[in-house]
Structures are given as C-alpha cells and as structure tokens.
Amino acid sequence: MFLFKNFTSRQSIFLFIFISSLSAVYGVSKLFPSKQMQQETQWLIQALEKAHYKKVSINELNASSFLASYLKKLDRQRLYFTREEAENFINQYSTTIITFLKQGNLHPGFEIYNAYKLKANNRLKFAISMIDNGLSIDNNSSYDFKRDENNWETGNLDNVWQKLIIHDVLTEVISDFDLNNTINSLSTEELNKLISESKESVKNRYERWLKNINEFEPTDIQELYLTSLTQMFDPHTTFLNIKEKEKFDQTMNNELVGIGAVLSDVDGFCTIKELLPGGPAEASQELQPEDVILKVGQAEGNFTDVVDMKLSNVVELIKGPKDTLVRLEVKPINDPSKTKVVRIIRDKIKLTSNLAKASIHKVIQNESALNVGVVELRSFYGSSGSGPKATDDVEELVEKLKQKDIKGLILDLRRNGGGYLSEAVNLAGLFISRGPVVQVKYPDGKIRKKFDFNPKLSWNGPLIILVSRYSASASEIVAGALKNHKRAIIVGDASTHGKGTVQSMIQMNLPYNYSKLNSKKSAAKITIQKYYLPSGESTQINGVSSDISLPTINSFLPIGESDLENALASDTIAAVNFRRPNNEFVYKLDSVDKLKKQSLERQNTQPEFQYLNRYVNWYKEKRNDTIVSLNLENRLEQKRLDQNFTAELDNQLDELSKLSFEKMDISLDIVLSQNLKSRQIRGAEDENSSNLFYEPSNLDIRLHESCKIMADWVYLLEENFSLKEQKEI
C-alpha cells in the first residue's frame, strides 16, 4: 500500500539543482565578528599559552583537527556539509588559521558558520515543502539515526534527507498509533488523517529548528568557535562569553537576581513553567505556571514585544539589578482572552533545588530495623560571600541526621559533576580529624599538598560514598581521599568519571576603555593543574574504582574522561606519608571483603537485580541497534515488541517498589524557611512531613542496595565489638 509517492532519479537530479539555487531565492543574513571579539580572541590566545597546564604554543595547534572539530560541532548529524565541502574548508583555512587566530580574526569561523546557516535554511525549507509533495513509507529501506558517529557523506545529501524525513514522519505516526489496532483495521480516512497530523507535527518541528538556527547571534558563533579551539588543549578548557559566564556564576553560587520564575519557549511564546518558592513572582500572587509573557517593560518606557523572541533574550530583559522594577504583560492561563500587566520588584533568589538534601531510610535487615542517613550532593557549590556552601550544608544535614539516631551515613555523589576544589577539601575534612586530601601539580612540576587541619569530625562512623560514571572532579577527590584514608567504602559503578584536572576561571583583561564601560566580561575556564590522591594515584582517565560494584547501563555509555578527545594522560606521583589518629573510625579490608561477598550474593539472587540485569542487557542491545526500518508495518511491529517488553519491566519495577524502605526527608534550614514563606504566600496549611516516614513510590535499586550494605556493616561492627568484649572478659 503506497501512502506517498516515490522519488525518481530525475527528481533527485532536480532536487540537487533546486537546493543549489535556493540561496538566490531565500534571503539569509550573514553574521560578522565585532571589534571586541578580536580583542577577546587575542587575549584568549595569550591566556592559553601562559596559563594552560600543557604550556603549548598556538603555533603547535593542529589546524586541520581544529577545523574538523568546529565543523563537527556545527553539523553534528552530518546533515548539511558533504565530505567534499568539509575537506574544502579544512584545505582552505588550515595553512592560515593560526595567523588568523593570532590577529584575533574570527573570519574563518564566521564564514563556515554562514555557509552552514545558508545550507540549513535551504535544506529545512525544502524539507518542509517535501513533506507536502510526497514520500514513500512502504518500502524496505532503512535509516541509521546515529549519524553523529558516521563519516561525512560523499556527493549530495538528498537521499539522507529523504530518509530522515520519512523516519521523522514515521516516528510521529507510530507515537500516536494505537497498538491495539493494525493498519488494515483503520479506514483510509483515519489513516490519512493520522499521517496528515504527523506530517504537520514534523513540519512544526522543522520550523522551530529553522527558527533556532536563525536566532543564532555573533556571540554564539564566537563561543562555539573559540571553545572548539580551547578544547584542542584539553576537553575542559572552554571560552565563555558574557551570557555564559553569568550562567556559570549563577550555577556555582546557587543564586541569581530576577523574579523567581522558570521560563520556556512553547511554540514561540515565553511561558512560565515554574514559580520558585518564596520568590518575587510567587509573592506577587499574580502569576502562575503556564501563564504566557507577551511583553516586557522596565520601570519606565515602552514595552518590548517578546513573542517569537529568542528565550535567552527574553530572560535578559526580565533580569536586572536587585530592587528594580520590571513590568510584564501577561496572558493568564485561566483567562487567555484577556491580558494584564504585572509589576514585580527584582530580588536575589536562592536556587535551593540544587542544594544538598538528606533523608533517613528505615532499613529492615536480619529481622531488625536501623536508621541509615543519606545525604545527596549534586555539586560542590560555594560562594565568596554569605551564599550557600556545600560543606556547611552537608555539615548541617549530618547534624540533623545524627539527632535522628542514624547508625550509618551514605554520601550520594552519583550525579555530582564537581565544583570548587576548596569545598572538596573542606567537605572531606568533615570525616577525618586531620590529614592530606589532595595533591596538586602545577605546570612547572611543583606539587602542593592540601591538608585538612580542622580537628572537628562531623561523622565518625561507618560511611559509604555512592558514585557513578557521572561522579567527576571534586567528587573523585572526596571519594578517592576518603578511600585512601580507609574512611569510606565506595559503592556504585565500577569507576567514576576520571577527571583529574583543575580549572581556573580567568576573567578577560581587556583594554581600559572597554573595561570602564562594561562591568561584565567574558572569561576563559582553563586547565591549570592536575590533582592526585594522597596515595599519589591520579584519577585522570582511570577515576576512583568502587570497592563494591553494582550493575549499570553507564558501562556502555561514552560518558567517561577516556571517551573525550584530547584528554590529558594519567600518571602518578609520590604518596604523602600520614598516620590516622587512634580515635578515628577506619574500616578493615577484611570487612570490605565480607560486605562485597554479601552484596554479590544478593546481586545473584535478589529480584531487584534480576530486573536490573534484564534492563541493562536490553538497553545495551537497543543502543547498539541504530538502524531502523522505514516501513510502517515493520516499525509498528518493532514498537509492539519494545512496548511489551518495557511494560513487563515497568510492572516488575512496580512490584519491586514494595521492597523500598520507609523514608523521612530532612531539609536545610534555608529550604524550610523558603518553603514556609511560600506556604504563607499561598495561604497553604503548615506541613509536618519532615518528621514523618513515608513509603517511596519508586525503588532506587543502587541506593537500596547501599542501605543494605550499610546495615551489613553495622551488624558486622556490632558482632566484632561483642567478640572483642568477650575476649577482654
């Protein structure tokens, strides 16, 4: 059954000619670098040569690799440039690119981007027209959707785009198809309607794609191009323009100045998705989620229409200095026929959702119960002022957990990608009375040892650090140091990420006249040091290995340092000699062996691990299968198989949720205060859930097993203590 018309070879030739001539039909504006960018580029080159750990001259840059990297970043799916075009760009600029960079001239980067922009406009506009002109989805061809791992195509890309569009339309048809039906059970009218709606959905997606490309600004190109350059030195050295530098500061400091609303672009409309607790937007009591912002005005002057405006530009209009007024013309979700103007005073907002959080798990093991405390830390955040610091927050939570009579503590760093080195050192110090935490090696070969000298111990009992392949940098310092001190047992993925380098944020030092007029500046985040554990081992590439490993899909994902291009090599240095104080808790190696044996027995027998292994094996198989059929019936059959299997897994996980231990959430004072303020604003009743245990709806298998390992450890310690007492008697 043919649903769309097939393309003939003559039509393919016509398509190639048509695409080539589109630039004359569609007016696509070019973008150009500014004088300021020239100064910033020259500064960046000097900073890289002087500050980077490798001390490499720009003259040693592999120009061809740099240009290839930039082309890949622009055209990640290899949908716009052919192999011939990519090679032409590389050949054209590889001999002169270093001279351009020294001059601060970004001409090659902008020329390549402008070519990409023209091709993207032409391809997407023609793709939109192709959807209406006819395609065949009743054939035996296939499509490899993992194009970012493919080589550039030779010749023209017509066949790739034809398959891409069929794939996208099929995906939409299948997503809306009731799998209880068959194609033959639908009437021609029903099927055509479904196909028509799917085509319209794909067209809308392509139009948004086109809109995003055309909203690219010169500073976006500058950042992409210069970051392609910096990552030739190592993958963690990056260039940040003014906007990105500001975002970085907000993330690290967990605070911003604004109205306290999370915004998103919904079909060109700036839409409020969430009101941050206790923020000015919530306090106004005039805004709610799904309200649409149509115009933005400052304290005085005219409104600016923000419909179809790039979301980042809308955010810039809404943000501003503390205690200043912003006016919003809003279409309320509960009365979209009207608009209203909301006046809000900007204020400093604490981003509490990213702060440390804690919980108590009532672990039932060996027919008895004990409380295990869990602290989840997403980043090693900090502040130069009075803002939140990771160490202070973790210390506060541990004190609250101790008041609830916990017997063991789990520090969950599975989603922690790093942060401030100083916070990592201070936080490790919460669990040792004194001693080395990390060794830092400078470009000149000098090594500086960083110690914890604070004798205070926040927790002097059994400690597990739960990690994953996403645990990186500062997380690895803490996990590795406490493992070296025999202070914590590491549980989770086989090893952590493997990032053993330190970056420094260097703000651009531009000419005085520019600096005087602009308080905000671009910056470079440059790798300046490598760090090593007290044992002298480097976490670079290898990461920190777990004492007890758990099954995970992360083993099959390219998310480690070893998967990144231009990663620095791993090496070792001399260990730091240190001795543990007699009164400090340490684990014994034979205890770890016993705990590992008990965990492996559960992993081989318990139903949660049977589920996890099924899921991991299925995911591995699906990830390796990147080629899909472009035949509707074949795709529907594959979806039925996948859906039946995932439904089985979901049902199995629902059953397993009954195994979850009862849980009590513990919050920071700042979070409790903000939530209280939010409830007062909303007129909601007081909540006492922080003092109540409840049953989680989902089972976190790795955390669940970590709690069991902790319970085994506590019972083992009690057993050893009892035997010791008997011997002394």
Record field, number of beta strands = 22
Low-confidence stretches: 1-26, 512-517, 725-729
Main beta sheet: 7 strands, mixed
Query: Do you know the CATH architecture of the largest domain?
Result: Alpha-Beta Complex
Report the radius of gyration as a whole number of Å.
Answer: 29 Å
Spatial separation of the terminal alpha carbons: 88 Å
Task: Give the overall silhouette.
Answer: globular
Helical percentage: 40-55%
Structural class: alpha+beta
- The CATH homologous superfamily of the largest domain is termed 2-enoyl-CoA Hydratase, Chain A, domain 1
Beta-strand residue fraction: 15-25%
Task: Quickly name the level 1 CATH class of the largest domain.
Answer: Alpha Beta
